[in-house]
Hints:
The N and C termini lie far apart (53 Å). Helix 5 runs antiparallel to helix 12. The chain contains 16 helices and 10 strands. The strands form 2 sheets. Strands 1-10-9-7-8 form a 5-stranded mixed beta sheet. With 419 residues, it is α/β, with parallel strands linked by helices. 5-phosphoarabinonic acid (PA5) binds at residues 73-76, 126-128, 131, 134, 188-190, 270, 398.
Amino acid sequence: MIDFKCSLGDFVKTEDFDAKVVEAQKFVAKAQQDDFGGWVDLPVRFDEEEFARIKQAAARINLDSDYLVCIGIGGSYLGHRAVIEALGGERGHTKIIYAGNSLSPRAMEKVLSELGDKDFSINVISKSGTTTEPAVAFRVLKQKLIKKYGEDGAAKRIYATTDARKGALHEEAVTKGYETFVVPDNIGGRYSVLTAVGLLAIAVAGIDIDLLMDGAEEERAALISDGGKAAEYAAVRNLLLEQGFDIEILANFEPQFTQFNEWWKQLFGESEGKDGKGIYPASVIDSTDLHSMGQYIQEGRRNLFETFVEIAADYEAIKVPTQDDNLDGLQYLEGKELDYICKTANAATREAHLAGGVPVLEVVMPELNERSLGALIYFFEMSCALSGFTLGVNPFNQPGVEAYKNRMFELLGKPGYEK
Ligand code: PA5
């Protein structure tokens, strides 16, 4: 179960906190009943037939492919990339690489050159099938696949995760006979990592998706009646925003969480940044970024707060070796676990930043494994929904994402988008 802690004496009054928590709690039922609230009950109500097919497809891909190219953008790839990297990367034969999350020709060249003449499969993930970035990448990579395996061979290596009934990719998959998985109608991209959108790549990476779902289920049980710790986090965020703290930095002392931070930024940014409102989500990986962003956080404009994601369990792996001299001044640390030094740096950073006027929140996962990560994902999803509703926005839509697309289509000359 995920724990949430805050020491906010100077920033938030207890009575305000209590009242805001009660406000946030009311939105659990609203999220559950929302047309896009399918993620709330997902851990206890997922399609078991599809879940089994995901595992079968993952096993097949590990047998016949050196690479799986995951094509998708935003909610269609950030979640599974976050999970795979947070848990230390691929454990099986197949290496996972990503395409269609930018329009960079250099990025595409890099993917093509890494693939070379290796065996590969594609998981194209797009609800609409017409999102420009993944659609362009799919064309390019499909051409390479067909050249290598022929039309029929290629079709057996394309796994399409898309709308169950309609859309360009759905139609193509039905026509060509690709194996398909479903992007549910009632779950938006940024809440979809525990659906087939995320699970196929995660399973291909050799990660136990049963345990991931178990963790989400346990966290759901902890939050479903009154929002639990997620309601507290949602309440504190809103109270801090009311006092002008409009930037939240997700801070993590584990570099494996770099992509998790990106997933979290989309979740909160796309959910809350609308109607002229929202907290701007930023992130750091410490202690690395203490040597670049630490100065600003300690002494810059006082409009930011930090949420530290911590792993409670100890990780006994590497100790500081002894040596004859003390030229580096490290004798006092000899024999100490690196994990102890890392955790101490984390505690020191929290204390220093708090003393510098930065409200500090802590989200604590018991350990770094599938179960805890499933719980953490569910905790943030619930917190985000409750926080967004408390803020007075719809945390499940993203109308602003269309603006750049419309202008891009006009400039590219897409029919129907002339000025
Ligand atoms: O969270 C979202 O809804 C977005 O990030 C979408 O996932 C992203 O824009 C991709 O859309 P599509 O799945 O239609 O290609």
